[in-house]
Amino acid sequence: MPYAFLQDLIERAGENELRQIADHDRDGIADADVIAAALEDAGNQINGYVGTRYQVPLDPAPALVRTWAVSIARYVLHRNGAPEHVEADYKDAISALKDVAAKRIALPVAEGETAPAVTGGTTLAAHPEQVFTAQKLRGWK
């Protein structure tokens, strides 16, 4: 499930930029499969980071996640080198995702909703045999 769509990319980058970076067959139209692959890659990266704290895919996804997906997909589409502002957006998105994974920031949720937390899992601990037991200390004063 993508977190952003073609229209989101058009709103951020514009149709001219998308034609330049996603028209691999040179027919003057941005290739839908190229854009879909970039958006899927963005979604996978987002899920990789937020999946440590939240149930993925996020549904519904906060608007902030859409912003990150557009930044990542746009960067991916600039396969021959992204302009500085596109690279900066990408780095900001990845930095924010790392902050989510590290529990420094939480994803915003709509009023009345709760964040979809990861459920399940078990905490395991391994420890050496106890050194001082009642049996071993018997007779000591």
Helix and strand content put the structural class at: mainly alpha
Question: In total, how many beta strands?
Answer: 0
Number of helices: 5
Describe the main β-sheet briefly.
Answer: none
Count of distinct structural domains: 1
Short account of what is shown:
With 141 residues, the protein is an all-alpha fold. Helix content is 48%, strand content 0%.
Key traits:
141 residues; mainly alpha
Structural write-up:
The chain has 141 residues and is an all-alpha fold. The protein has one domain (1-141). The protein has 5 helices and no strands. The radius of gyration is 23 Å and the shape is elongated. The mean pLDDT is 86.
Draw up the topology in text.
Blueprint: H1 6-13, H2 15-22, H3 32-50, H4 63-77, H5 84-101
